[in-house]
Prior knowledge:
Blueprint: E1 8-18, E2 24-34, E3 38-42, H1 49-56, E4 64-69, E5 72-73, H2 78-87, E6 88-91, H3 104-114, H4 119-132, H5 148-160, E7 166-169, H6 178-192, E8 198-201, H7 205-211, E9 214-219, E10 222-228, H8 236-241, H9 248-258, H10 272-280
Helix pairs in contact: 3-4, 3-5, 4-5
Amino acid sequence: MNGSTGENVLALQDICFRYPDGSRGLDHCTLALRQSSRTAVLGANGSGKTTFFLHLNGILRPQVGTVLYKGNPLDYGRQGLHELRSRIGLVFQNPDSQLFSASVREDVSFGPLNQGLSKQATQQRVEEALCSVGMIDCADKPVHNLSYGQKKRVCIAGVLAMGPEIMVLDEPMAGLDHAMQNDLERLLHRLHEGGRPIVLSTHDTAFAYRWADRFLLLDRGQCVGTCSAAQFVGCIEQLQALGLGVPDVVHLHRLLTLRGILPAAAEPPRSVADLAYNIEQL
């Protein structure tokens, strides 16, 4: 895959990174994120997903290779990183690693104020961000009194308040119950409506298949595959080889077509709800 085409907003080219203890993070990893895409990064624990994300906004710097933003190598100087992190918003897997202010409003205000926005402009950004994640009623609550799911929403609001061009979320569904996962999925749809690229990692292939239009497969620090949603079914054996689950809807659709209940040429549904609708139309 060429990481420098015009449609790619972020690209890693032959990136290598090892941690101080010698463990491998990325190993000659080359991949790209497309403009306006919804990208899911799939891989088992230790495959390099978090290391990949930490390279996207300069928290980690490659020992070999180049990270490109809109075709240009990242500037790792203080001002360059400041600008980059305003454009690429990273939401960590554990919200307690990202929240540090006493109240929700203070925490969400930190980013815009650090960008040099006025108090009035910051207040407007904070109100809009908290409304967008459904947390405006909790604006003055202490952060430590929030539930795990609420903390995740505040982290997303804090990133949104900085007006990023790209949203990067590391395992956003981790630790959430079913209802909170559904709420977050709806939120991700809303955040993408304006065409903002969103990239996230997840172990939930059923959610990834429903939500994403592009998939990146990582294994032991290498990008071992990319596919679109239309090509996803063709990657099933590769997903299984990587120790990842296959969405139930894929198995059900395959069984129904083999039994002649659904036509073989039918487009594979992305969710069980879509599959049920297809059956109802018979």
